[in-house]
């Protein structure tokens, strides 16, 4: 009996791996992650935004990174997610998801020789009756997930209806032989090798705090708030607007060429012109990309101790060297203390910038309060255990020094317990933790018995997902 | 078979050396490649020296490029359909497996069977690897009658109880999860509940919704479940027939106290929700407490030590067990320390210790201490008893002097250890510090007619001999002093003679004045400074012997004997007649010595 150590790979029987080419689908507000179970990164990462061109000849939908960033007239950029963190537009969601799966993973299925157009010349001579008979089997074969079981993720607050809808899509539209639905919180914990813990997931549209015990979400403790990546983006926009002079935000697609200018000087760029300019939503989405860059390279979170507004903290922040940033049109500036203000709202509702469209966020939506509320809903005996395994995940947790601040805030909340923050270093692991957890789970041999098979679905209906996936 | 050795032998060449050297060289050559490190430049390897490098050097080739095991074509893999036995519905999934090698046409039944399967439809493997992970929880079950008879509760409806059992089963006794998911809504909530299926909901509908939805705590749920479990357990197995394990389980189940548990959790929560200040204060207080405790411990230890010094050792608790109780090293250690303390206290009580201190154990102690009677005796009493013991051992018997003489009994203040011969004692007395003195004594004794070996060296003879030797010693001393005085007087006389050329008056007076002085001095020097005289003697004698002793011991001894002979003849003549016939021979030395001695004395 050799003991487990990190340097040697476990034997096949030891980690109970038994891959069945399952597909893991982890849809999020900003991107959809899909890939085969057992791999360490999702092969297919697609934006959740899709393009919609509503012209006289009919609606046209555009999916995928390549399509939606090309400026086109009347192109609207939409997202199928609702404002409450639950899928709103199921029809489009299914299509975007299918695109994410088929574009990179399964590929377009070889169509039936009768329909794929290669045999068009001979089609007229064929026997029509025989074609009719085969129609049903042909349709089944065309379903994209015929051969792969599907593991899907869902947010912790997903209502029953949404869950039933998910299994319906997977079974009816995609024809998957087996299906399972698991909460992102649990999977993120699995990705860090934990079965229990508190998962802090700061995504694009929502921040969620999920207590997980023995691989099961404690539903009463699940907390969500809209203070996440998009909130930070809005804060940056507000900051740009409120600064004197106003900082221009020009997306890439508008800029034809640019010339370098001094810091703070107006941009000298040649702009593109469009006959029929793309819609506001397209521009907003493109601006969002610039803001993402800004968030990645400039925005910093006051690491503590105390809030940014406390005492002399702001003075100290002012004295730290600034960070330069250049807009697509060449305008550039060194950002000083402003870069701390953009994300301070995540921790301190009072510090958030406000205007008419962006009201002051609620206090209970700040990260420390979410954690507190989540812990409060857990049995007193389990709290120390959970606080020892605080998993930090989600793309927005990559904000510089967010981990430090979180650590400080949690230690201030619970000074008498041993609080440990588990924040994986690699960007991929942080952004796609839920997918990686799903990849681990679906490749386990011991997971085979948990799949909801097609047979079971047909027997019990969509409600089976409530009984089986808890 | 002529080896190089034989050839060398024939040619008369040297044999061993060359052969060995070549063998050594060969061996060294053979050993070197083993030690050489692969994959490192020779120059670098040389830097390592003789010792192995501190960091293991891996041979890259071996570590990372394993030889391909087989050179044949790549093995084929197939997507093997399989059924997981842990599932009930026969879901067929596919995983990648090595394609089974095609067997020769006719082998045995299994192969043909497989072939059949392949030809008809793909063989579906049955996977039982993960069957062990399909675990169902054990749950107590009860019938309707049992429920009605024993398990009714005012607080819990039958439906809710069933629901509770269902949830416990679903979540495998994870009470925190059970409480989290526990969502019982009596009656109308059928289609809203997520935990029960339609059939269950229908049954719930039928039941009268008599209780509003209650917020149950974990403790409530546990209490109900444990209560039912305990009762059912008792029903199935009467208390008397339970084995130990079952009974402890029964005890824990029946003794569950929800209030206590609830309070405990409240406390735990309160402990967790303390503010930073409170935690810091507590830490400070804890540190303080630890400090105080340590101080108290130290004080206690000091007091304990003091007490141990003051009090006599306490009675051994394991007395009744006798010697058997001293089997463990700890017990022996305790015993030893006890005895040691006892000993010390005894010594102190007797005031500085008249007897020799006793640290080591003896059998007497071992026997005495375990017995309770002795342990309680005071130290004084024990000492007394020991004293009486001694007197009893050596009964005194007085002998008359005649008898003492007859039996040769003697009493001594102190006896030297060991056994000695009486003759040894006599021999010892003959010997003086210096050789010359010894010779002189021997000469004196010979002159007196005492033979060298005394035939019957009894203690009396020894006594007499001792007296005799003492007298001889005195005599020798006196003679020495006299010689010295004579020498001085002679010197003075010569000086006087020299001065006598001017006037011979003082010569007579000087001589006479010296003479009585010398006489006076004799007893003085003998009594007061025998050591000094001895030294003087030695010096003289050495000078005298100097001419004879130079060559060696043997010769020296012979010379000594000769000298003895001379002296033997000389001594009486000197003592009797003051004519110093032989003194001329050494007049010079005596002169110089005498002068030196006198000058020394003068200096003193």
TrEMBL record, chain A:
<dbReference type="InterPro" id="IPR004000">
    <property type="entry name" value="Actin"/>
</dbReference>
<comment type="similarity">
    <text>Belongs to the actin family.</text>
</comment>
<dbReference type="InterPro" id="IPR004001">
    <property type="entry name" value="Actin_CS"/>
</dbReference>
<dbReference type="InterPro" id="IPR043129">
    <property type="entry name" value="ATPase_NBD"/>
</dbReference>
<protein>
    <submittedName>
        <fullName>Actin-like protein 4</fullName>
    </submittedName>
</protein>
<dbReference type="Pfam" id="PF00022">
    <property type="entry name" value="Actin"/>
</dbReference>
UniProtKB/TrEMBL annotation, chain B:
<keyword id="KW-0805">Transcription regulation</keyword>
<dbReference type="GO" id="GO:0003714">
    <property type="term" value="F:transcription corepressor activity"/>
</dbReference>
<feature type="compositionally biased region" description="Basic and acidic residues">
    <location>
        <begin position="483"/>
        <end position="500"/>
    </location>
</feature>
<dbReference type="Pfam" id="PF16282">
    <property type="entry name" value="SANT_DAMP1_like"/>
</dbReference>
<feature type="region of interest" description="Disordered">
    <location>
        <begin position="483"/>
        <end position="604"/>
    </location>
</feature>
<dbReference type="GO" id="GO:0035267">
    <property type="term" value="C:NuA4 histone acetyltransferase complex"/>
</dbReference>
<keyword id="KW-0539">Nucleus</keyword>
<protein>
    <recommendedName>
        <fullName>SWR1-complex protein 4</fullName>
    </recommendedName>
</protein>
<dbReference type="GO" id="GO:0006338">
    <property type="term" value="P:chromatin remodeling"/>
</dbReference>
<feature type="region of interest" description="Disordered">
    <location>
        <begin position="384"/>
        <end position="406"/>
    </location>
</feature>
<dbReference type="GO" id="GO:0006281">
    <property type="term" value="P:DNA repair"/>
</dbReference>
<dbReference type="InterPro" id="IPR032563">
    <property type="entry name" value="DAMP1_SANT-like"/>
</dbReference>
<keyword id="KW-0804">Transcription</keyword>
<dbReference type="GO" id="GO:0000812">
    <property type="term" value="C:Swr1 complex"/>
</dbReference>
<feature type="compositionally biased region" description="Polar residues">
    <location>
        <begin position="589"/>
        <end position="604"/>
    </location>
</feature>
<feature type="region of interest" description="Disordered">
    <location>
        <begin position="346"/>
        <end position="365"/>
    </location>
</feature>
<feature type="region of interest" description="Disordered">
    <location>
        <begin position="1"/>
        <end position="32"/>
    </location>
</feature>
<keyword id="KW-0156">Chromatin regulator</keyword>
<feature type="domain" description="DAMP1 SANT/Myb-like">
    <location>
        <begin position="129"/>
        <end position="233"/>
    </location>
</feature>
<feature type="compositionally biased region" description="Polar residues">
    <location>
        <begin position="385"/>
        <end position="402"/>
    </location>
</feature>
<dbReference type="GO" id="GO:0000122">
    <property type="term" value="P:negative regulation of transcription by RNA polymerase II"/>
</dbReference>
<dbReference type="InterPro" id="IPR027109">
    <property type="entry name" value="Swc4/Dmap1"/>
</dbReference>
